[in-house]
Design brief:
Low-confidence stretches: none
Order of helices and strands: HHHHHHH
CATH topology of the largest domain: Hypothetical Protein Yqey, Chain: A, domain1
Mean pLDDT: 91
Number of domains: 2
Structural class: mainly alpha
CATH superfamily of the largest domain: Uncharacterised protein YqeY/AIM41, N-terminal domain
Shape: globular
Helix content: over 70%
CATH class of the largest domain: Mainly Alpha
Strand content: under 5%
Number of strands: 0
Number of helices: 7
């Protein structure tokens, strides 16, 4: 479903002559194609699923935030602006992220369902959160919450 959305966005941005959107969506599609090829070599002939696509998009946003920060520190404001534009394009394809209260509620719910009581259950808890909230949750923050609750 995300792939169709990305392909449609590419067509629309090409017609509208939005250079930044075209180049960013092409980067996303190239990254997906690379992952699909890697998945095929492991026996998955259908390519990656939407959860993995969301993970790739999140990773791309994170990389661009880091690059933007470096560019700003180095006085390369035009490059920082370019990174900010790419972040905006990529974020259009990500679902609405959970806020802090929603993250806390989700962690509590999953821990209750799994009966998580000690740090031994952290891996299971985080795996369930990743499965359910791919692309919507900051897993570093969620991990800290889980650790605090279990520790």
């Amino acid at each position: 479903m995300l792939r169709a959305e990305l392909n449609e966005a590419l067509k629309k941005s090409m017609k509208a002559k939005e250079k930044r959107t075209v180049s960013t969506v092409r980067l996303i599609l190239a990254a997906l194609k690379d992952r699909d090829i890697a998945a095929r070599s492991k026996g998955n002939h259908e390519g990656i699923d939407d959860a993995e696509v969301l993970a790739i998009l999140q990773s791309m946003v994170k990389q661009r935030h880091e690059t933007k920060e470096i560019c700003e520190k180095g006085g390369r404001l035009e490059l920082a602006e370019q990174e900010a534009e790419e972040i905006a394009v990529i974020e259009r394809f990500l679902p609405e992220p959970l806020d802090e209260k929603q993250t806390l509620a989700a962690v509590e719910e999953v821990m209750q369902e799994l009966g998580a009581e000690s740090l031994k259950d952290m891996g299971r808890t985080m795996a369930a959160l990743r499965e359910r909230y791919a692309g919507r949750m900051d897993f570093a923050k969620a991990s800290a919450i889980v650790k605090k609750r279990l520790g």
